[in-house]
Amino acid sequence: MKRILIAAGIGATALVGCGGGGGADAPAGAAPMVSITTTNKGTVARATIDGGQAIGGSQPFAATGRATAQSVSSPQGASRVGALQSVVRRGLVAAFVPRPSATIASAMRAAATSASTEPCSVSGSITTALSDADNSQSLSAGDSLNLTFNQCKDSADDVVNGAMSFTVGSVASAVEGNVKFSGSLAFVQVSSTSGTRSANIQGSVGVAAAITSTAFQMALTVGGDALTVTSSASGYLDTIVYDPGMQLAVAETDGAVTQTEVTLNGSFTASSIGGRVQVTTMQPLRQLGTDIYPSSGQVVVTGSASTHLRVTALNATQVQLELDANGDGTYEGSGVFAWGTLATI
Fold this sequence. Notes:
The protein is mostly beta strands. Helices cover 8% and strands 49% of the residues.
């Protein structure tokens, strides 16, 4: 039997930073950079924050077994799904916690190639196909994992469909209580719906991930075919394309109040702003599971002609926007706004 033990910590190989990141050069066929102005600053800020929240949003988990592997209790009217983080974590739990009595930190899998289909807690199922490439009966380079979500519902309001494929590239540690691994992850029309909001994920990433019963960490580098997340809600639709080389990271800690930190460094295109911008995280965007918006963190968004927008989360209800509209390096405009008003600024 193959024993896979998932544990905490991405370590020094995490693909994050505070002063820049991948994606600075425009990829072939990329949309032109957008000039950031007083007219579109609110839309640019919203696209940036929604882009971060599409990657990771605070969503409490209860991982005592398969039936409760993901229990999401988002705030009423929450503006995000945290789709990519949610789907990746749900998939890894499905693969590595097959027994109802298992904890998130231990699981048994058959050697060589094995496949199984198990029900989700409310309805639907997940089919897991694991290939032990070298028949080593341990997690090792070259092993692959294919997951297919079949109308998987773990709560009344949350549904996941589609497939994703993970290939192990390296294993930093594989002892009980300490497994860190990396590799590549491809999303094939993965859709995630939570209440009235939905997201579709397509593309590939390099990934380093680690999980415990109380924590989840994920560092991504967007692959050559980019990463596209289309988000929709009542009165809202946006498609964000993260450029190849962009670096994304999520660190979530479960507890009485779940906390998520998101870091984005690189460039992306958003349909809502009609073009492309560069984002640099100065301080990770931190969000509590009880909040709709980030309560701390700062990002700087760069547009064409060296225009800049500095977005600072003051608390869970207010955000400060500072604008350098002429590209001279000085923020000549500043204002404090309610998070919910960004689309109307």
